[in-house]
Specification:
Chain A is an alpha/beta fold. Chain A is about 40% helix and about 20% strand. Chain A is globular and about 70 Å long. The two termini of chain B are about 20 Å apart. The chains are: A alpha/beta, B alpha/beta. The complex binds thiamine diphosphate, iron/sulfur cluster and magnesium ion.
């Protein structure tokens, strides 16, 4: 495959900013928040050095960042922003407006815990809290994945059948700030892939004035929401089409999830983002010890690929789901989805929920090994378990 | 331009059409039409949640014959910022050539209160747009609650004239001067009762390069408790009593654009209004006097600021 370009040591944030540089969006409106800040800083430098000619709206808040993106997007522009945590929470209202108005905005999220207590480190409580707002969500393990998935997200968002916004999530600090080798493909190739947005309607179409964001009452609102659901249901097909196109450039695979040593795995861990890296390392070690362990790394969380996940887990004996956030008083988000996915299966694997890493707590190989050992010895229960929590002694 | 010519201009370019669901006698549509007639260039509008938005675009109908966007209550300035950025990008990249004007409409709740941050940010960034606050002095779309623009002494549903607290006990904010403090080229106060003055100010607002702010008194017969036919009279009394002085701040210079030949007692403005009924009840003379005193003080201060012009 034409895996050209150059390999450079980059942080996740820098890699994302590189993707944005290659895309050269019409409009970027963003506000700094740790650990996302270096995305907007790097991109602002690109702009002020003339390496992109994007219109930057240096807004006074994330609420305005998303508002400006919605305005720009409805005016036909390719608009991007980036945020996390408190910033995502502050823009929450307009996050829903963006999907409701069918704005194909791409927003990298450097996942960070939601206050309180205030904490600047990684967990998924921010984007998980927004999982029902009608955005496509893609979770990324590495800087490389995040970089490439910004492109995938862009084409997916703008596809005429979709017209939905996408969050491209990376783990705050762990991925956003750690330097990894990243292959940045040639500008010309990526620019060609990104192409130009072709809006269906635009506020700048002066001959066909449109009214965007009218009030819809009991007589129309329901149908509009149903159309949003229809668009979401079309995502998997388009996702795979775009993935194939991107694959031709990179040679990489972009399934809804990645299966690692799953073929004969008896004990499986399902997780997302950087935790998959730790898990993969443990899988390798335990495989060397002759243990039948495997990893299922979810990339596409919204829409959730229920049937495909169920199929992938159909041969496992026991499955541990590792969540980096909670849904207080309910199943942890990823665990809940996996449980849903398994419902239709005649022979269900044992299923266990683990929560780890809140507020940036490290996930150690020993934690992963513990979860695998539990699965191998059939220690499966309905109770939530915590990995790396000081008071809990499982 | 005289009212007849303005009316002709409005009919010639009907940018906001009839058939909307605003109350009979509502001043807001008159304000919108007058302002939109003040430029012949194409206009794109953003609109905050509130009476104007809710009653002008009940899906599948729209009264707007220009591109129009509503997104939320507190973000019309940020929304139009994005539209302008898209326009600048499209221009730079050769996708559009026309000279386009941009305007954002918000009620007083949106402008003085919940959206003041968004407004301040957009003014500071210097986008070339006109911000219009149609000020009916309360959250009318939601039934007449208190806002930062509700005047001293007025009764609202969230600060009603009660036995111990008689309506709002705080002054109205001064949005024109707040806007002018951003060192923008143009900010002005206008009223629906003086359309030539409003039109002149709107023309200037569209002409200047950079942000311009118009704060326009917008009679709300339904929640002020006045007769629909008295909408213009009420606003005129507000102006003639100096409760709502007409002035502009152009490149930092303040100018009063209309001075009543003799000041009308503020009671003439307040008496017909349900929201001030309590101040005319026996025993509440103090309230009325206090309102008059504050109006007088406000006018004196404005005369000082505007250099006795
Ligand atoms: C974030 C948010 N808070 C509250 C509301 C409810 N709300 C809608 S319109 C409105 C009042 C609007 O007042 P104003 O801006 O003065 O416009 P008017 O209706 O008076 O024309 C309120 C409180 C909302 N839509 N969004
Ligand atoms: S409630 Fe008042 S502001 Fe709202 S439409 Fe009716 S008259 Fe106009
Ligand atoms: Mg109001």
């Amino acid at each position: 495959m034409a895996a050209k370009g150059k390999t450079v040591p980059l942080t996740g944030n820098y890699a994302i900013a590189e993707a944005m540089r290659q895309i050269n969006p019409d409009v970027v409106a963003a506000y700094p928040i740790t650990p996302q800040t270096s995305i907007v800083e790097t991109f602002s430098k690109f702009a002020n050095d003339g390496r992109v000619d994007t219109e930057i709206v240096r807004v006074e808040s994330e609420h305005s960042a998303m508002s400006a993106c919605v305005g720009a997007s409805m005016a036909g522009a390719r608009a991007m922003t980036a945020t996390c945590s408190a910033g995502l929470a502050l823009m929450y209202e307009i996050v829903g407006v963006a999907s409701g108005l069918r704005c194909p905005i791409v927003m990298p999220v450097a996942n960070r815990a939601i206050s309180a207590p205030i904490n600047i480190h990684c967990d998924h409580s921010d984007s998980m809290g927004a999982r029902d707002l009608g955005w496509i969500q893609i979770y990324n393990e590495t800087a490389q994945e995040a970089y490439e998935n910004v492109f995938l997200a862009l084409k997916l968002a703008e596809h005429p059948d979709i017209q939905l916004p996408v969050m491209v999530c990376e783990d705050g600090f762990i991925t956003s700030h750690c330097v990894q080798n990243v292959r940045i493909y040639d500008d010309a190739v990526m620019k060609k892939f990104a192409g130009e947005r072709k809006p269906i309607h635009s506020l700048l179409d002066l001959k066909e004035p449109i009214s965007v964001g009218a009030i819809e009452l009991q007589d129309y609102f329901f149908e509009t929401k149903r159309q949003q659901q229809d668009a979401m249901e079309k995502v998997p097909k388009v996702y795979l089409e775009v993935a194939e196109e991107l694959s031709k450039i990179t040679g990489n695979k972009y399934g809804f999830f990645e299966e690692y040593k799953m073929k004969d795995a008896e004990a499986v861990i399902v997780t997302m983002s950087s935790a998959a890296g730790t898990t993969r390392a443990v899988v390798d070690k335990m495989r060397n010890e002759g243990k039948k362990v495997g990893l299922l790394k979810i990339r596409l969380f919204r829409p959730f690929p229920y049937e495909e996940v169920a199929r992938a887990l159909s041969k496992a004996k026991n499955v541990a789901v590792l969540d980096r956030s909670m849904s207080f008083g309910a199943h942890a988000p990823l665990y809940g989805e996996i449980r849903n996915a398994l419902y239709e299966m005649e022979k269900k694997p044992g299923l266990q929920s683990y929560v780890f890493g809140l507020g940036g707590r490290d996930l150690l190989e020993s934690h992963v090994r513990q979860a695998f050992n539990d699965m191998l010895t059939g220690k499966v229960s309905r109770e939530k378990r915590y990995l790396g929590l000081r008071e809990a002694s499982e | 331009m005289n009212p007849k010519e303005i009316a002709e201009r409005i009919t010639k370019t009907p940018r906001f059409t009839s058939g909307h669901r605003m109350c009979g006698g509502c001043a807001a549509p008159i304000i919108v039409r007058t302002i939109l007639a003040a430029t012949e260039k194409p206009v794109v509008a953003a609109n905050a949640t509130g009476c104007l938005e809710v009653a002008s675009t009940i899906y599948p109908f729209s009264s707007w014959d220009i591109p129009w966007i509503h997104s939320a209550f507190e973000n019309a300035p940020a929304t139009i910022s994005g539209v302008i950025a898209a326009y600048e990008a499209a221009k730079k990249r050769g996708r559009i050539k026309e000279d386009v004007k941009f305007v954002a409409f918000g009620g007083d709740g949106s402008s003085y209160d919940i959206g003041i941050q968004s407004l301040s940010g957009a003014l500071e960034r210097g986008h070339d747009f006109v911000y219009v606050c149609y000020d009916n002095e309360g959250y009318m779309n939601t039934g007449g609650q208190r806002s930062g623009a509700t005047p001293f002494g007025a009764s609202t549903t969230t600060d009603p004239a009660g036995k111990v607290r008689k309506g709002k006990q705080e002054n109205k904010k001064d949005l024109v001067r707040i806007a002018a403090a951003h060192n923008i080229p143009y900010a002005a106060k206008a009223s629906v009762s003086n359309l030539p003055d409003l039109f002149m100010k709107a023309e200037k607002a569209f002409k200047v390069k950079g942000p311009a702010v118009l704060v326009v008194l917008s009679t709300c017969p339904t929640l002020w408790g006045t007769m629909p036919k008295d909408t213009i009279t009420m606003a005129k009394r507000a102006v003639d009593s100096c409760a709502w002085p007409l002035y502009e701040i152009e490149n930092g210079r303040c100018r009063i654009t209309y001075k009543p030949s003799s000041k009308l007692p503020v009671a003439e403005f307040l008496r017909p209004q349900r929201r001030f009924r309590h101040v005319f009840m026996p025993g509440n003379e103090k309230e009325l006097n206090e309102i008059q005193k504050r109006v007088d003080e406000g006018w004196e201060e404005l005369l000082r600021i505007c250099d006795g012009s």
